[in-house]
Design brief:
Blueprint lengths: L1 H19 L5 E15 L12 E15 L4 E16 L11 E15 L6 E10 L2 E2 L7 E2 L3 E15 L4 E20 L4 E21 L4 E15 L2 H4 L12 E11 L4 E11 L8 E13 L2
Antiparallel strand pairs: 1-2, 1-14, 2-3, 3-4, 4-5, 5-8, 6-7, 8-9, 9-10, 10-11, 11-12, 12-13, 13-14
Length: 295
């Protein structure tokens, strides 16, 4: 079952990527480069027990749309983020090894079939991972875990202008999570494992340009699993039905340009996945940094 699901997902991915590589020139595109650096420094005679630290985050946000034909269009978005925190010991004043603070690889392609009706069919491929798995520092694993999400269904564009858009899509999905698991720390040996689930997926995207300097983006993703490849192993345990719960990922970003290359951003993320935690998880990042828009 795992091999059949993975093969079906891979085939769908290849078809969409092939389709989006064809067609006319890109109609809309953007590429933003962000760098945020925060530093605290204290003299050696500071007596409050404070310690110096440096925190930095680099990010790439890119996207482009293509009109492949009169009826078919595609949109690809790319988000890459990585950051570290460097801390100084308050007593020895020695700098510890940097600790990862931010890490994200998020690439999505959506192909829409514009039938000039109330809803349009779509196909999508979504890849999510991270650059460095730091859960076990002694054994570095890169691009782990990997999540591949393929879906198809119906989409609706509720609002569309040159700089703003509100759209939603709904349909069945197949999701594969590939992990490189450590099986022997002494021999530094790992093995590749994967799990699959499928069900109904809903994604709502909001992109609003509120003024020349302020913008708001939001994405609400809901997954309702109907099948899970590891469900048999959970029977008889207290976590037997956890995988059946709806997974929620709601991301919100408000950005304000305060100078030509300086942007203030507030990022808020709400997550709920009962297999990971019984309660929802919350992340907030308020940042002031340099932003360079190539186009």
């Amino acid at each position: 079952m795992k091999k059949k699901t993975a093969a079906a997902g891979t085939l769908l991915s290849i078809l969409i990527l092939f389709a989006t590589s064809q067609g006319e020139e890109t109609s809309q595109k953007y590429l933003n480069l962000d760098l945020i650096v925060t530093q605290n420094s204290y003299s050696d005679n500071w007596d409050g027990g404070e310690a110096s630290n440096v925190n930095w985050v680099a990010a790439v946000n890119s996207g482009f749309e293509k009109q492949l034909s009169e009826m078919i269009s595609s949109e690809t978005t790319i988000r890459l983020e990585f950051g570290q925190t460097h801390n100084q010991d308050p007593e020895t004043k020695k700098w510890a090894k940097p600790v990862k603070s931010t890490d994200l690889i998020d690439i999505e392609t959506v192909a829409r079939f514009n039938l000039l009706r109330w809803v349009d069919p779509y196909l999508s491929v979504w890849f999510v991972s991270q650059f460095l798995d730091a859960s076990y520092p002694a054994l570095k694993r890169y691009v782990n875990p990997k999540t591949i999400d393929e879906s198809a269904g119906i989409s609706r564009q509720f609002y569309k202008t040159e700089k703003s858009e509100i759209s939603s899509r709904l349909g069945p999905y197949l999701r594969q999570i590939i992990t490189e698991d450590i099986v022997d720390t002494t021999l530094r040996r790992t093995e590749i494992n994967s799990t699959n689930d499928g069900g109904i997926e809903s994604v709502t995207d909001v992109k609003l340009t509120l003024s020349d300097k302020i913008s708001y983006t939001s994405q609400l993703t809901l997954h309702k699993p109907l099948s899970f490849s590891e469900s048999g192993k959970l029977k008889g345990t207290s976590e037997e039905d956890y995988w059946k719960e709806v997974d929620v990922n709601w991301e919100n970003t408000v950005s304000a340009s305060v100078a030509r290359y300086v942007t203030v951003s507030l990022y808020i993320q709400l997550l709920y996945d009962k297999e990971i935690a019984k309660k929802g998880r919350f992340k907030e990042t308020l940042s002031l940094g340099l932003t360079y828009k190539l186009f």
